[in-house]
Write a structure and sequence with these properties.
Number of strands: 15
Structural class: alpha/beta
Shape: globular
CATH class of the largest domain: Alpha Beta
Helix content: 40-55%
Low-confidence stretches: 98-112, 131-140
Mean pLDDT: 84
Strand order of the largest sheet: 4-11-10-9-8-5-6-7
Amino acid sequence: MSKRPTLMGKSEIILDQNALVPLYRQLYERLRSAILAGRLETGARLPSTRVLASELGVSRNTTALAYELLLLEGYIESRVGDGTRIAYLQPEDQANERKNKNTEDPVDVVQGPALSQRAQVLLNTPYPGEFDANQVRVGTSLFSAGHPDMAYFPYEIWARLVAKHARQSLQAVSFYQDAQGYAPLREAIAAHLAITRGVHCLPEQIILTSGAQGALDLVARVLLNPGDLAWVEKPGYWGAQGALLAAGAGLVSVPVDREGIDVEAGKQLSQNARLAIVTPSHQFPTGVTMSLGRRLALLEWAREAQAWIIEDDYDSEFRFSGRPLEALQGLDNARRVIYIGTFSKVLFPSLRLGYLVVPPALLKGFLAVRRFIDVYPPMLEQVALTDFIVGGYFARHLRKMRALYLERRNALIDMLKQEVGDLLEIVVPEAGMHLVVWFPIGVSARAIADRAAEHGLYIQPISRFSLQDPQCDGLLLGFASASPQALRAGIKTLAQAMRA
């Protein structure tokens, strides 16, 4: 067995400082490939994280995170007094790697005529929300937006409800069901929306979907013809942009300011757009709340242009000052608003349950299309969620998490002011699970995000949510999934990266 640390030649490990993939992830991939290909033999001793960091010219955090991933997945092993060595792999693992190498990257194979034009557009569209599940394990999701703290979810209650219905109710719902979804759940949602959001609807107007993304996809399929124009917020939610592009729509980027989407600017860009997708309660990603004046102006535009407004009520449940603002749908007398909500952000992300509130005139058309997509979401989760809402667990969980997120938001703001308040502008959000810090014109948020990645922090620049580069850029800082202590440590690291 080798006594001295061994590694591939340094020239074989090339890390791209400008790539979107964090440096630790690049290093992990290089080492993993070398292990599976046999270039690093079983039992070979690896350099320490400090030595390797020095050789590659990166931070020690980068090499430590790469080693931790390899250790978690069984590629390396570490013993006190013996250092870090290459672990023994089953022969089929290396055979699979060689097979993958011989077939090359499958993405390259399917590009070109094999894909539809719409698929090719999506293939070439950046996806800022994509992340590796390992980020959660190694802590690099510290500032990721849209990640609730799942440690506080009442799993025992949820498991009990799921188990109860698996025993008692599954047989009754095993046959094909209504394409709109489970009727008692739609009744519970309608009651909840009427009380908390001022949404005017009957249970018959609600369609259960596979999360908010499933709702956006259904809207785009039903309402748009190829070539139709649609307003999107700038910066805005990439999931909405992707759903529109998949439907063949043309995107009209309408700027967002401190009052929300600029309706007058939108009318100048495209007065007769077919629809607009907005996040009025808590705009993504800027976090601003649309003013009443803008809401009324948007509704008036939709009425005059016979356009549709898609209201994605993102993060409205987590409002920190006063009661939640009334939904745009509740102000709509012309029935031009389609309301979208989801349980994935407020409960847990893998619960792919969302819903649409559809004007009665559109309901038959929506259901006709829905039946040819996925028919309806899985029923067991629907019946369990019904009891979760009716039993009061949902409201109780929201109250607890709202207080928790408020504490974390305030801790993040205090730390930002203390560490980097002189370098940026902090926008304090009234709701949600993230905030935005803005830099002066000319400062590259992308460069700061790349530098932060070297320290193991995964942070999105605002510019990644715009179809065109903005004049002023900032960083999106999620605060829901980390403790105040972790947030303070993360800001100290971010401050070091910024000042460097």
